[in-house]
């Protein structure tokens, strides 16, 4: 057994998380402390936890398996409860964070924006992107058709849902590149549903990143990314974890079990959990996968209430985008602009 | 009143029909006979009436208000009855006609095809194009990823639903042009929901045309077209009338009333219908519009059973496309490839 | 021709309108004045026209072809424009009217209510009832499970969508009667999509009636009704016209044409319209039907924007019901309680 | 720790499985052998595993936590692959099994059937019942309206989807009882989405039971059942697991881990897994729950492809019901009768 452990390929990205925050936490646990080249801070405001992770070096990037760049994560554990007042509060907070984030990413007040909703209409946990596109306010047609009559406080925004490879036969990045070349936006905002390693982050977390969308990320497993290199303009990504691998649920539960035992008993951890107690998290995850995958049990799952969750969080993001992109839309009451 | 009649602008396209067959019939009625430069023939096979209209000259084009080119129309009055056996028969006939049509349009057996589903998911009578895209078989990804392993009898097909201006902020023709430039198909097949001037043609008729999609046609009122000139490759259009203007219902009914009276009585037409009896169809339509439009009554309507109709006819077209585009899909049993 | 006219069966209910207001107007036109036994008044408040028709006698009932009882109609021509501020205003006004109406119908503040959403999920213009049921607030389960803990200001409300005969094989009235006998509500509120004779009333009009639902009314053509006689409790009906017969569009347009001609010219009516000018509206409608029906042209149609209309008006009614049924829900801000 | 173990309430139904087959397997594992009073046999036909579990005594019932009665389970691991040929085969096999099952349950060839689709339209993994109702063939209206004209080979079938408590305010069993009393069917067939304890059974398994639906079973957590006692007629239940508790995924994985270790090493189980190795499955599950539940992590999850799964399996069941209920529908080609 020990020998097999040594042979495991402990690549970080194998963890199946699209959240930089989770990748950083796992790397820190493995490392026993902070990762050089990765800076982070956390604030907790009114039930909304905001983490800022800055991957500053290539070394840091390799250590956590995420691209260099800035990642802002909003965590709202109560978001699953369907409280509309909280939803409005989150939309407002998201709008404020996103407005600041755009500025720091060099996307100015008048930059023309193309919003790209990645994912598949027909797969509920993958429908976030298309749903945001449907609910967001687009203005480009007015700038094109009657530029003199657009009220102040609005900028040029367009939005597309390029579909998925299985339905179109075309990589979404190729479709988006074609549209970018025709319509010449100054920046792209890409919305995608993500995988988390922890079930509790599903549908309670929003990640903003200035790194774009990378191959293999998200539910749909793109083979090509949406990045500044490919599209020629800054790409800001907004992602929400909506699914998790069964193996991650198991592994995460074993970690919680360990913590639970550590709190309640002395040396019970090793008694109850045996060698699993001493394994690194990555090792244990690999072990779980070795068992589940050949049996076809490492399914990707989503909470049973996913239909309502997706609708709620798509509205939060669409409202937040409207408020952060247009000065004329007030961040104090963003919800009125979507339905 | 008479004076006003003289001032009417009797442009053909004012009739609000996207069917060349209807435009031709109206022009013939007005003209009292065939239109020079417009050739047509009709065959009736087994409950499916197939009309071929060839607009051969600019003169013919102006006379009927449709672009020069070939138009094939399948009319199946019983299609509204929801008979699945008839639906399969129509899919098979459509596949045969479409295969021949492609050849005559210079699109050869191995031509790479991009299918474009115009219209709006959220407006049932305008959802035909997106629904066909969702149900059609796409193969381009296999040709791209594992070209050696694609079975014989298939060609490269991709499919996109570019959305509508009100949701994307971008003309669908711009989106399609961007995708065409990236993916280089040899031909485009564009599916669109149309307006008919006669309620009985709604959801019972399929038009195939080699003229592409022109500004102002279809439900969504494009401002830019999808044509060979714009896209650089042949564009074959498939359209199904799903809506009709209220004014056309009224006008068409008056024509039927006239026919009815003519059959049943002598000179009753003028007695019962007065001057309307003598008006040209276009004049009468203008009169009806003059009355309805200022009151906001010239609504665009669709049969109340539209949800089922759209689903059925989208399946017919998707099945037909699969059979006509891939030799490996048998025209005798096309329905099995869609759901 | 004249002879045939004499033979027409001019039954009022042939007009295919479920609106008492329209039936009354037609009867008055035919009668050249008010109908004995039918009292009505109209107020116009802030863009919302409210008509109250009281059919007081059997004679009046026969004359207009509607059951004796009270009918309140809200007409809001601008409702089709999708203005959310107007929608909130209409919901509030509807709530006020409905609250008063319930009281006058003898349904008191604490009466237990069963809301019945008639119609078919899968036919958009017939989906009003089920959509209202989905959006309305139900409380009966709390009264059953924890009666002591229900906050003041709420009453017991339950809601069902019984489906349609073609899908269930059971008359909706049988299903509702079964549920009424089990759950013993004090009153039933039934929501149904209706047919209007005028296209402009489609999706702009709400009718409240204390007569229940009668066989043959609504889109789904019930064979049995939902009435006090059948269910044993008061039945208040809420209806919204969402469809119209093509023949009614034609006939209504001819009437408008007549009015138009009368305004613009002397004796042009008879010149332009011939005998149709002199026909009674019912006669003319029968003539139009004689022509359209044998050709299968007398389809029932709905505006092409029906998807959005139905969603908007279902929200208005659900919000209005919440506010009028529960004191704790404020009529000044009813929209917050639905989504 | 050991003390706490003793205190655990090891009730079988805590396992959160609605499948008798799983309950029996767990009881056998705990018991180290067959359970007295529970008879079972298994056949494997052509990729479809059919288990028949007969709970014959009260003792057996208590031991496995399921009602006395017959349970037939079809397991088709490949059902998730979306192969339409396999789906047709499963529909046919299900139809044959169900036909036999009905006979053995004393429901004869001419018995009038009410099909009840439990669950919630708006929650995808709970939408199985309503979807089957929508796709199944109903005939009762023809027997009521034109009994002489019904073709031979059909029996009287009706179908309702009573909704869920949160939307209607009424227990589904009350609604069904009301309808049963009005329409007097000879038997009820109830369709419901279930919870499994093993992720691999989700969407691959169909259970048929003559015990009806019991409180707390299914996704919607009914408080009242649909049983012969309550409804007065035999109730045959058809269930498909569509969800699983996260704690069951963890526990099931630990069991697989144990098996894996046992195969690959000597005494590694106790080394790697510590005390967990020796725990009874129920003990371990309780331990996992103790950890997950307070943290809100014991979510109910469903595979991310649930939308397509539910649609496919609803079609299988609807097709199978059509074939088994009507002699005129051929079991060799059942799929043609649904869409």
Automatic annotation (TrEMBL), chains A, B, C, D:
One of its GO terms (molecular function) is metalloendopeptidase activity. It comes from the Bacteria. It catalyses: Endopeptidase action with P4 Glu or Asp, P1 preferably Glu > Asp, P1' hydrophobic and P2' Ala. One of its GO terms (biological process) is spore germination. Autoproteolytically processed. The inactive tetrameric zymogen termed p46 autoprocesses to a smaller form termed p41, which is active only during spore germination. The keyword Chaperone does not apply. The keyword Protease applies. Its EC number is 3.4.24.78. Residues 1-18 form a propeptide. It is an enzyme of class 3 (hydrolase). Homotetramer. Initiates the rapid degradation of small, acid-soluble proteins during spore germination. Belongs to the peptidase A25 family. NCBIfam families: GPR. This is Germination protease. It comes from Paenibacillus cellulosilyticus. The lineage of its organism: Bacteria, Bacillati, Bacillota, Bacilli, Bacillales.
């Amino acid at each position: 057994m020990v020998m097999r452990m040594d042979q495991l390929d402990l690549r970080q990205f194998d963890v199946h998380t699209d959240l930089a925050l989770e990748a950083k936490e796992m790397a820190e646990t493995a490392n026993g402390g902070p990762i050089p080249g990765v800076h982070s801070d956390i604030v907790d405001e009114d039930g909304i936890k905001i983490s800022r992770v800055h991957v500053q070096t290539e070394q840091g990037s390799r250590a956590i398996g995420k691209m260099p760049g800035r990642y802002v994560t909003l965590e709202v554990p109560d978001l699953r409860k369907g409280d509309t007042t909280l939803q409005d509060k989150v939309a407002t907070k998201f709008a404020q964070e996103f407005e600041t984030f755009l500025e720091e990413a060099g996307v100015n007040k008048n930059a023309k924006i193309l919003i790209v909703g990645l994912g598949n209409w027909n797969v509920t946990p993958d429908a976030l992107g298309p749903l945001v596109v449907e609910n967001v306010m687009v203005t480009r047609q007015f700038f094109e058709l009657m530029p003199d009559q657009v009220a102040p406080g609005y900028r040029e925004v367009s939005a597309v849902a390029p579909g998925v490879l299985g339905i179109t036969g075309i990589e979404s990045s190729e479709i988006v590149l074609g549209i970018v070349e025709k319509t010449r936006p100054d920046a792209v905002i890409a919305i995608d549903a993500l995988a988390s390693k922890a079930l509790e982050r599903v549908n309670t977390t929003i990640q903003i990143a200035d790194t774009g969308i990378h191959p293999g990320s998200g539910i749909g497993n793109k083979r090509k990314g949406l990045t500044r290199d490919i599209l020629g303009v800054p790409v800001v990504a907004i992602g929400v974890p909506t699914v998790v691998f069964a193996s991650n649920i198991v592994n995460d539960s074993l970690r919680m079990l360990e913590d639970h035992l550590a709190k309640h008993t002395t040396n019970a951890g090793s008694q109850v959990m045996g060698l699993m107690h001493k394994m690194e998290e990555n090792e244990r995850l690999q072990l779980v996968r070795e068992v589940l995958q050949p049996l076809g049990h490492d399914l990707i799952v989503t909470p049973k209430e996913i239909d309502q969750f997706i609708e709620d969080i798509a509205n939060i993001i669409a409202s937040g985008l409207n408020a952060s992109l247009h000065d004329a839309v007030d961040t104090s009451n963003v919800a009125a602009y979507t339905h």
